[in-house]
Amino acid sequence: MAEKVVADKSKLSDAPKKLKSKVWQYFGFRDGSSTDKAKCKLCFTDVAYAKSGSTTNLMQHVKRKHNID
């Protein structure tokens, strides 16, 4: 199981610099996949991300699952 986490982590790229919300420090994108879902860097869960720029789902995930404000 630990090997899978390491493999997933190595394929995770940071969010582009143009995305300025603080929540992006906890999320990235899996290389070669669509950008409609961001991957949590803490638990590797896919979270829906609106291409319109809304990060509400990402913020709610971090608050609910990881108790980070």
Automatic annotation (TrEMBL):
Domain BED-type: 18-69
Cited PROSITE patterns: ZF_BED
Keyword line: Metal-binding, Zinc, Zinc-finger
InterPro entries: Znf_BED (IPR003656), Znf_C2H2_sf (IPR036236)
Any one Gene Ontology molecular-function term assigned to this protein's record: zinc ion binding
Pfam hit, one: zf-BED
Name of the protein: BED-type domain-containing protein
UniProt organism field: Dreissena polymorpha (Zebra mussel)
